[in-house]
Structure formats: C-alpha cells, structure tokens
Amino acid sequence: MFRRALLASFLVLAASGAHAQAPTPAQMHEQAIVLDTHFDTPANFSARGWSIMDRHDYAVDGTQVDYPRMVEGGVDGGVFVVFTPQRGRDVVADMWSRDHALLRTVEILEMTARHHEHFVLVTTADEARAAVAEGRKFVFISLENGAPLAGDLSLMQTFYRLGVRMMGPVHFANNDLADSSTDPAGPEWGGLSEKGRAFVRHANDLGIVIDPSHASDAALDQMLELSRAPLVLSHSGVKAVYDHPRNIPDDLLRKLADKGGVIQVNAFSGYMVETPRIPERNAALVALTEKYGPQRDVKPEQREAYLAERAAIEAKHPLPRANMDDLMQHILHVVETVGIDHVGLSGDFDGGGGIEGLEDVTTFPALTERLVAAGFTQSDLDKFWGGNVLRVMEQVQAAAAR
Fold first, then answer.
1. Are 362 and 73 in contact (CB under 8 A)?
2. What does residue 210 show for φ and ψ, rounded to 5 degrees?
3. What is the reported pLDDT for 7?
4. What is the mean pLDDT of residues 97-102?
5. What pTM, to 2 d.p., does this model score?
6. pLDDT tens-digit readout, 59-89
7. What is the pLDDT of residue 4?
C-alpha cells in the first residue's frame, strides 16, 4: 500500500510542477495491478525438485512463471489453472477427471498455504486488491475443461467451496457440456448440450466467471445469450487478425463487449501466425510423446531428458514464431472494435504460450512499453492489466447475489 501510495503521490506532484516529467513506462507498469488470467503453472507443482519460490529459466526447464520472475515482471497475481485433459466420457473417465481436478486444486491450496508470506488465495476483486496492498501475490483458481463436472454438475459447488471462481466448459475436444472449437470431428451439440446450459445457470447462481475460450463459436454465442453476467475469454485471439478456430469473430467480440465481457489476448504463437505443416517435425513429436507421454504428464525424473530431446526437434525443424508486433495487432484490433474496457492479456504461460519478446512473466514490462508507445494512458493500462477482469468478477458475483 505504501509503495503504491508513494508512487501515486509522486505522479500527482510531478504533474503539477512547472517542469513536470511524464512517468516512465516502468513507473506506469508498477502503478497498475498486473494479472494474467491463465497460468498453467500448477502443472509444475508436482514436479520433483520444482518450487515456485525458486527462479527458473525457460531455456533450462521450460517453465515461465515463478515467484522471483513475477516480482521481476511486476506481476501482482493471476488465475492459476486446474487443467484436466479429456480422457473419454464414460463413468470411469468422469471419476478420473473429478479426482484429477480435485488433486490439482488441493495442490494450489497447499502452495498458497506453504508460501503464505508471498501468496494468498483470493476469491473476490477486493481480496486481490488487498493482497497487492499487503505486498503478496494473489491467486485465483480456474477450472479449464468441464470434464471433472460432466458426471455431476453439483460438483461445481464443491469446487466453488474450494475457491474456484472461473470455469471453462470445454477444451480441445467436444465433451458432455459443449462443442469445442478444435474437435476434428466437428460439432456434436450445435453449441451447448442441455447439461451445458445447466452449467451456465449454475455458474451464474454461484458467482463463477464463465470462460468460453476453447468453445465453438456457436457455444460461445449461446453462453452469451444465456448468461445473466459478463463472460471472460481468459486466453483467446481475434479472427480478423488471424483466422484460427480458437479465435473469436468480430460479431461475437461485439456481443461479448455488449454483455460487459473481456477478451484476454492470448500470446500463443500457433493462434497468431501461420504454422506450416512439417511432416518430419510432426513425426518426431509423435515419437517423443509416445516415449514420454504428453508434456504436461512427463514424469519428473524424465523432464530434463524430455526437454533436451524436444529442443533438438525444435532446432532441426523450427517453426515461425509470433512476435510482439503480432500481439499488438490483436490488442489494437480489440480496442478499435470494442474499446479498452474489454481487453487484457494472457501469456498462456506454462501451457504452450510465449512468443518472441514475451517469453515469460519477466517480459510483461516490455509490453507496457509497447502500449505506452502506442498512446495508451495510465487509465488504459490500469484497465488492460487487471481492472477489466476485476470489474467483471465483481459484476458476476453481484449478479449471483441478486
């Protein structure tokens, strides 16, 4: 609190002086509450020898978020994700998904308890602001993929009681709640299933932010129609800049904004620039997965070997990577289309995100420099970096209270 109050006083005094000095981008970044709405970092919590309190290096272990790097990047907190892969849709798969998500949620709770001097679990915007004033990093929890809930939607209340305040109904493949934007088989429900519609109602009643990031356009449209509260696309891009199924078309972007919602632009290269198909690369990656399993599930003792072999494949068969110019195109398009009140950022870090110039959370100040150079003010940055999402969270919870 003292740090921010002092900086605010300095800015007021400086502005009133005859020879006022404009605040630097670094000072403007420090003044904003900076949050990322999609940290896949909890997938690292169970890795042997890995601690969020240690400073890691993306080039060494492939991770992008930890406490020292959050401090360096001026990051005040974020939404930590409970990701559950889709492993079938029968009773056994439902139970596995439920248990997986419960365990990952507990790991997040354990992390915040173990490092309570530095992190705090929050469930409201006011709690997040209070954490910043105390000098601690705030942690919201999100459920990515509705598979853990598919067998029993009453589990939404269970996860709510554990602290979850954001949920996405679907991921890469269709499930019992909704169609995915990327299922090779195409749509199954024409948007939401009946259970998916019930998911929207329950989320509204509980005060849970709905995150349709991976949903099909039809499912997103239906969620916008059904929901009594704004929605947040926690990590998505815009189709007008790059036509990818994961990105949102302008008509739905306008509907999202009209509802009061926010799109957190996703710094994920594959959703931002054309990615050519290289058969040799794909074959090598398939073989790597067969050897070690999916990256998220690689055993701790095999992680170093996996990363070394993955790096060798990347070096032999490199793909074009998006950069800060590509990211700015998405951000500026959203602002030009629906305004600064409806845009923010997610690096999709520790989940495949990261582009040239925005490799981990330490590089967030560099994006602020780009935004300031593009003419954005302190008020704009306050909204972009966290204010818009915190506002939506307040609106969602107020709608539930009504």
1. yes
2. -90, 130
3. 47
4. 98
5. 0.91
6. 888 899 999 999 999 999 999 999 999 999 9
7. 52
pLDDT band, residue 19 (cuts 50/70/90): low
**Dihedral in degrees, nearest 10, Cα atoms 160, 384, 334, 197:** 10
How far apart are alpha carbons 247 and 217 in whole angstroms?
Answer: 9
Main-chain dihedrals φ then ψ at residue 191, nearest 5 degrees: 125, -110
Q: Are 137 and 118 in contact (CB under 8 A)?
A: yes
Residue with tokens 């981990």: 360
Q: b or e along 253-289 (b: 16 or more beta carbons within 10 Å of the residue's beta carbon)?
A: bebbbebbbbbbbbbbbbbbbeeeeeeebeebbeebe
Q: In the numeric block, which tokens belong to residue 238?
A: 């815009």
Q: Which residues contact 317 (CB under 8 A, 6 or more apart)?
A: 278, 280, 281, 284
Sequence-separated (6 or more) residues with CB below 8 Å from residue 165: 123, 140, 141, 142, 207, 208, 209, 393
The DSSP code sequence of 204-245 is HHHTPEE--TTB-HHHHHHHHHH-SS--EEEEE-BTTTS--T
Chain position carrying tokens 């040799």: 280
- What φ, ψ does residue 237 adopt, rounded to 5°? -125, -170
Residue 370 one-letter amino acid: R
Q: Please name the helix (run of DSSP H) or strand (run of DSSP E) that holds residue 311, with its range, or none.
A: helix 303-316
Average pLDDT over residues 247-261: 98
- For residue 104, give the H/E element and its range: helix 91-114
CB atoms closer than 10 angstroms to residue 198: 14
CA of 153: how far to CAs of 94, 161, 200, in Å?
11, 14, 11
d(CA 293, CA 287): 9
Residue 257 corresponds to which amino acid? A
Give the SS3 label for residue 119: strand
